[in-house]
Amino acid sequence: MLQRNSFRGHPKRLKRIHSMAAVIILLLSLVFGGIYVSANPGVGKDPVKYEYGVFLGVNAGKKAMRKFRKYETIVLDVQNGFDKDDIQTLKERGHRVYSYINVGSVENYRDYYNDYLDITLGKYDNWPDERWVDVSSSKWQDFILKDLSGKIKDTGVDGYFVDNIDVYYQYHRDPIYNGVETILRGLKEKGDVIVNGGDTFVMEYLEKGGAAEMILDGVNQETVFTAIKDYDRNKFKESSEEERDYYLAYTEAVKKQGKEVFLLEYTKKGRLKKKIQNRCRELGYKYYISKSLDLR
Hints:
By secondary structure, the chain is α/β, with parallel strands linked by helices. The chain has helices spanning 12-31, 62-68, 84-92, 138-153, 167-170, 174-190, 199-207, 241-255, 270-283, and strands at 50-54, 71-76, 96-102, 105-107, 120-123, 130-133, 159-163, 192-196, 218-222, 226-230, 235-238, 260-266, 286-290.
């Protein structure tokens, strides 16, 4: 589940300058915990400082576009007012852009909520504004694959940040499994897919011999090194060793399939941030560390 509030040719002299800058930034990354990446000369006038950022609570506007400048891969929610021009601007600057899409539950603030209330399955713990959806329903599959995903793709995003396939963990039965697979395969035909969480479904799919490239390009895993103590007051802690090892085993299994791994962590503690940065550099993961669950 995603913890969210609402919830990518120069002259020789220039080449030499960029090479020197890359060396300097590499040295800085070694000294300061790996938070810098080499500048992408195609990303506006500002060098990229961070590889990955998740901004699901951010609404469209000039302030948002300024916030995105230093992030290489950006996750946003186009339903927060972002249009084709916004996405085109970001891509022209060299960013890779994914949009959030909720395929396993429906939020009561979406304008289509009441249209699908009849196929909801139950309440969503810790998120009173949404309910789990029966993904085996053709009504829901048609909406996701023939309507919502098309509107999102029309904005020009590179792909989808797919949330709540954990509906299969909540409702562990074959029709739900099949529904999740149908939806992921359909989305993958339209663009790149990053699955948020989803360990129960993804691991079972791989164990059954499913081809990873048919359903995803990467996974984003939340709270590997951190844990949430209080959802309402943005209080966090370090995760247990058991929890951390479980999710690292999952992400490594995905990485062995040749897919990308992203981590989304929550903490305000500098020492823990440093630990996360160092481990992600060792593992080859991209990461985003947020101070709050609203991802703004």
